[in-house]
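TA notes, week 10

Several of you asked for a full example with nothing omitted. So below is the full record: structure tokens for the whole chain, then the designed sequence directly under it. When grading your own attempts, check the secondary structure regions first.
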């Protein structure tokens, strides 16, 4: 994404310490890169040590890449403590680790259901709870990456729907408990170009075109557009925003926009 027309200019995040859980690929890596481009000091964490190191190199020479599983509270606490010791109190923490797959509930094992809830919901709690006393308070910003399944029931997604709905309420509860020192918000991305999820859901040109027709904006979003939302929620422009889930989805949660085309043709 070309950021030349962005409202956020270089230096906006200078000196800020940013920790991104799940930040070794996809949307979360894009968020980390954007904060770094605005002057922030970055640390990313993922389960794979090699991916974590490679992600840090992509972000910049001073970025930190660590390995930890968000399901393991002690491990994620250790990573947070290491970052705070090296870079200082944390200003911005993004929790974006996620797991998902398509499966009917009647054929899903209890372990499969638990795995997604553990990564998505328990992982988000672990990251936010573990960072609380390491935050630069007042003024710290926490952002959870959620999804449209939190509010829209989706077949073959019982595990993800339950986990993401839990994240949305966790955001609201923490915003109530931790304000005014800490702001807690979420971002709910829609179909985003260049992500593993969309590659699985729309592997061909035909399926891509079918998705485009359903979205009011008639295109998939870009990782950089989600990153801009994260910058906004952590910027001075959003100092009175907390407990909010910001949809960055081109209007896709509004319903199937292709029906509008049918109605136009009938007019």
């Amino acid at each position: 994404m070309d950021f030349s027309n962005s409202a956020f200019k270089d230096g906006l995040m200078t000196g800020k310490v940013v920790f991104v859980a799940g930040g070794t690929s996809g949307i979360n890596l894009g968020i980390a890169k954007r904060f770094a481009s605005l002057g922030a000091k970055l640390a990313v964490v993922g389960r794979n040590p090699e991916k974590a190191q490679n992600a840090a190199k992509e972000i910049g020479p001073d970025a930190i890449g660590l390995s930890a599983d968000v399901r393991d509270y002690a491990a994620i606490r250790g990573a947070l403590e290491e970052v705070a010791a090296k870079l200082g109190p944390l200003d911005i923490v993004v929790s974006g680790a996620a797991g998902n797959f398509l499966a009917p509930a009647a054929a899903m094992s209890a372990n499969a259901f638990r795995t997604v809830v553990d990564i998505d919901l328990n992982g988000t709690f672990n990251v936010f709870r573990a960072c609380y006393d390491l935050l630069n308070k007042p003024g710290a910003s926490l952002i959870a990456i959620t999804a449209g399944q939190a509010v829209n029931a989706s077949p073959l997604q019982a595990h993800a729907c339950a986990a993401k709905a839990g994240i949305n309420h966790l955001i609201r509860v923490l915003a109530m408990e931790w304000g005014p020192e800490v702001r807690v918000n979420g971002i709910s991305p829609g179909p985003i170009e260049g992500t593993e999820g969309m590659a699985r859901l729309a592997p061909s040109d035909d399926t891509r075109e079918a998705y485009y027709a359903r979205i009011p904006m008639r295109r998939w979003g870009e990782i950089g557009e989600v990153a801009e939302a994260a910058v906004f929620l952590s910027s001075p422009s959003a100092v009175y925003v907390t407990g909010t889930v910001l949809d960055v989805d081109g209007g896709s949660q509004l319903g199937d926009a292709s029906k509008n085309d049918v109605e136009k043709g009938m007019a």
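The domain at 17-266 is CATH 3.40.50.720 (Rossmann fold). Use that as a sanity check on your answer.
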